[in-house]
Amino acid sequence: MAEENGTQAPEGAAQAPVLPKMQVLAQFIRDMSFENIAAQKSLQGNTQPEIQVQVGVEARKRQTENQYDVVVKLKIDNKTKEDGSQIFLIELDYAGVFQIENVNEQQLHPFLHIECPRMLFPFIRRIVSDISRDGGYPPLNLDNMDFVQIYRNQLARVAQSKPHADA
Length: 167
Known about the structure:
Strand content: 25-35%
Order of helices and strands: EHEEEHH
Shape: elongated
């Protein structure tokens, strides 16, 4: 087959690498909870909040070929700095259904736990901001999350929980 310049590519020429392909097929809130504890206890006043964010990622293969469910689980605990009284608690499980192709088996696990959550994060950030604002507080704008570090931390926790085979 002739190219534009009239020459043919040599038969043994290296082909362009096949790049990974990811498509978000669906995304949705799987579970969400907002507990406005300060309002329930009638806490008032200007207190300094201390916000703790816990993040987890779960991924699993779907029955359809090359499709995966990825769930980002957030727990946001907002307490007062002064005495640790709880202000509000947000728990959010946000899921995406992904079509993933051209990713080798060794790279699939990190891809699902790093790249897929990165795609979901802007939507998660918006939901958290809206929930906190609608709950009567200033919008909570989450900082960008380092899903590489979150993945490494999850691997370390799994490694620590496994019994050693030294016996």
